[in-house]
Structure formats: structure tokens, C-alpha cells
Design brief:
14 helices; two-stranded antiparallel ribbon; single chain; 12-stranded mixed beta sheet; alpha/beta; 16 strands
């Protein structure tokens, strides 16, 4: 049986740069900052007060009253982005309903704010004071359930809590579902919410910058948190063709690995990340020279950016492949980061625009890469890489390409080298 190509046919976004595909794309091209003072809780005693908070999102604009009662803010953002992606794909209700549509979403903490609210009620007033209506809302496993219920999808539903690499994990799993014939359509991506406990935790880890995130800059001081949802509709080539859909991008291969080293730092030699990126390239049936742009994980922390530079040099050698970090604009959206950035990769493929790394001022010899600094750049955009690293040593790399650029999936398998254990995906 010939393996199907997997196409992105629609995208939806809830982000600090704006709501919807068009606003998100305009923000990326303009190098807009989505960073502002936190307003959802009092951060004045924490020593840090800035984040990529989504201030424009109002669930009442996107959900029915019944849906609003059933779910928390993280699920609401995921469902709103899913509806945007489905509308962008031009899929009708009758094309989504049934067992051939699946929902696979990533997150780190899901509805952690609801759990924190319940704990406060318990501590202050006792267990009987906890509102019964809150109990069925907080599980991270509910994110894809809410989306599936809203669109009538009766195929597999799955939450992948793979830390800050969760978006790439979800997209890779979703693509495999289509390649192996288990689904025709998968709504995938990730959602994440800024929450007080999470925010204070990163302050305590001394990982947060005081004013701005400056990936790859010599004077970088850490990350800023963000939130939002990035959702993609993936379809098999045959399903998209039957309904006359226009593919926006093709999902290529992906690579996964674990550093097996440290809970918060990447391995200094970056061997796991290198293996994951090489696996993604090999499984896409291409060579490193075919990659036109790298969307970096680019957190703005000392260790992460230095390790990621080693990956780029090892994989691409002396070639100066353009690289940029959307986290400089969005903040680090945790589990949703690589999903939002995957939507950004679709933007690059469709427009030839490499989004900038804003706030980049002083080159760092330890991060000697071709940073797209402060202003967007135009260039060849047939194949792009989406790189993500996460606490615990999760490494996940996905590849997106213009439709028709990659070899047929069967040809990719025929030419792919056997994977090492570190690069298995």
C-alpha cells in the first residue's frame, strides 16, 4: 500500500499577536511584540511582571454558553483555534463527523488554573466549599475531548503532555495516524495557559528575563512566558483532493530523542537534539542543504541557545542557514510553543517571509548563527524546520514543506537510514 502524503489544509491561532491566521501572520511579518504586563493575576510580588498574555480573547465570542460552562480558558482557546482552523480548511460538519476524524493535542499543564482555584477554595473554606461545577473541567485530557465533541469527531482523541515539545509531538503523532490509515483528518496542535503557579515557578528557577526575551543575543537574560493555541487541520492527500482543498503545506518527517541528562538544561554536547534533527531530515527524504529556514526553539536562556547553536553547526556545517525565534515576539508558550510556531512555518512556506528575532542587539560568539534580526527577511522557502526542546530532555523536530517538494513517502522510507535509539520517532 502506498503511504499517503499528509497536508496542512487549515490553521487557527489564538495568540498575543492577535486572534486568527491573518492577524498572526501580520504580526510575525511586522516583528510585533505580544509582550505586556500580566493582568490575569497579581505578579507585583514576584519580581517579574511581563508575559505574552492573550488579552483579546473572550470565550463568549467563540463558544456557546453551554460550552463556556463546561470548560476552562485553556480548553476554550483550543476550541476557538480549532474552529478557526476548520473554517480555514473549508471543512463542513458532515466532513468531520464520524470515526475517520481524530483530535490530538499537546499541552504542559492544561487547566492548571482551575485546579489551583479548587485548592484555594479547599484550603480557605474546606472541601465542601469546592464548587462541583469546577471538578469536571480541570483535566488536561479534556482538551481534545472538548474539540471532538464540538465537531463530532469520533476517531481517536489524545492529549500529549510532552512538556514544551508537546506541539511537535502532537503534530508528528497526528501525521502518523494519517500515514498508517487510521484517520483521514486530524485536528492537532496544542494550547497553554499562563498560570500563577507556573509563572512563579519560572521566577524561582531564575529563568525569566526582566524585560525582554533576546534569543541568541550575547546579553540574553532568559525567557518570558506566553500563552495561546495553535491548531492545524491535517488531511490525507486523497481526502483533500476529493473535496478540492488547497494544501497549504506538507508535513514531512519528524525526529524525537531524549537527552537523559538534566531536568531543566539541555545536554551541553546537544547530541540528542542533533540526532532528532538529523532523523527528521532523513525521514523527509531530503538533505540538510535542502532546508531553507530553521524556526529555533530559541528561549533566550544561556544554555538552550548555546546548545541549539551546536545543533545548527553540526547539521548544516559551514552553511549559514537563516534561523529565528518566534518566542522573542510571543514569549515561551510552553506546550503550545511548537504548535504556534508550526503555524508560523506554514506562514513562511506560503509567503517566503522569515519572521524576525526581535530584541537582537549584540552578536554572541557562542551563538554564531545567521539570526534573522529585528526585521523580517524574504528568501527561498521550500522546506523549513521546526525545532523544540523541553525540560527533561525532550527533543522534537518536525519538517514542513511546500506541497509537492518532498519525495513521495514510500521513497522516503526506501532511502532513510536506520534510526539510532536516540533518534527513534
Amino acid at each position: 500500500m502506498q503511504l499517503p502524503r499528509v497536508f496542512v489544509t487549515g490553521v487557527g491561532v489564538v495568540s498575543s499577536l492577535g486572534l486568527g491566521k491573518d492577524a498572526f501572520f501580520r504580526g510575525l511579518e511586522a516583528g510585533k511584540s505580544g509582550i505586556s504586563p500580566v493582568s490575569s493575576f497579581d505578579a507585583s510580588q514576584l519580581g517579574r511582571q511581563l508575559a505574552g498574555e492573550v488579552k483579546e480573547f473572550d470565550p463568549r465570542d467563540h463558544l456557546t454558553a453551554a460550552e463556556q460552562r463546561r470548560m476552562g480558558r485553556c480548553s476554550a482557546m483550543a476550541l476557538a483555534a480549532a474552529r478557526m482552523a476548520i473554517a480555514d480548511a473549508g471543512l463542513g460538519a458532515e466532513q468531520l463527523a464520524g470515526p475517520r476524524t481524530a483530535v490530538v493535542l499537546g499541552t504542559t499543564m492544561g487547566e492548571a488554573q482551575l485546579l489551583a482555584d479548587m485548592e484555594k477554595e479547599w484550603i480557605v473554606k474546606g472541601p465542601q466549599a469546592v464548587r462541583r461545577s469546577m471538578i469536571p473541567k480541570y483535566g488536561s485530557t479534556l482538551l481534545p475531548i472538548h474539540v471532538a465533541r464540538a465537531i463530532g469527531a469520533q476517531g481517536m482523541v489524545l492529549t500529549l503532555p510532552a512538556a514544551c515539545a508537546a506541539g511537535n509531538y502532537a503534530i508528528g503523532f497526528a501525521a502518523d495516524m494519517i500515514r498508517t490509515g487510521r484517520a483521514d483528518v486530524v485536528v492537532t496542535g496544542a494550547a497553554e495557559l499562563i498560570q500563577e503557579l507556573q509563572f512563579s515557578g519560572f521566577v524561582r528557577l531564575a529563568a525569566m528575563a526582566p524585560e525582554k526575551c533576546q534569543p541568541f543575543d550575547r546579553n540574553r537574560q532568559g525567557l518570558l512566558l506566553g500563552e495561546g493555541a495553535g491548531l492545524l487541520v491535517l488531511e490525507s492527500e486523497a481526502h483533500a483532493a476529493r473535496r478540492g482543498a488547497r494544501p497549504q503545506a506538507e508535513v514531512g518527517g519528524y525526529g524525537l530523542s531524549c537527552d537523559a541528562y538534566h531536568i531543566t538544561r539541555p545536554h551541553p554536547d546537544a547530541a540528542g537534539s542533533i540526532a532528532a534533527m538529523r532523523a527528521a531530515i532523513t525521514r523527509s527524504g531530503i538533505r540538510p542543504d535542502d532546508v531553507d529556514f530553521v524556526n529555533a526553539h530559541g528561549t533566550g536562556t544561556k544554555h538552550n541557545d548555546a546548545a541549539e547553536t551546536k545543533v545548527v553547526h553540526d547539521v548544516f556545517g559551514d552553511r549559514r542557514v537563516p534561523i529565528s525565534s518566534m518566542k522573542s515576539m510571543l514569549g515561551h508558550c510552553m506546550g503550545a510553543a511548537s504548535a504556534l510556531e508550526a503555524v508560523g512555518c506554514v506562514f513562511t512556506l506560503e509567503t517566503g517571509v522569515y519572521p524576525p528575532t526581535i530584541g537582537y542587539e549584540t552578536p554572541d560568539p557562542e551563538c554564531d548563527v545567521d539570526v534573522v534580526a529585528n526585521l523580517a527577511r524574504r528568501g527561498k522557502a521550500d522546506v523549513v524546520i521546526n525545532n523544540s526542546l523541553a525540560f527533561g530532555g525532550y527533543n522534537a523536530v518536525s519538517i514542513f514543506a511546500r506541497p509537492g517538494v518532498l519525495p513521495a513517502p514510500d521513497d522516503r522510507l526506501a532511502t532513510a537510514a536506520p534510526a539510532t535509539p536516540a533518534a527513534a520517532s
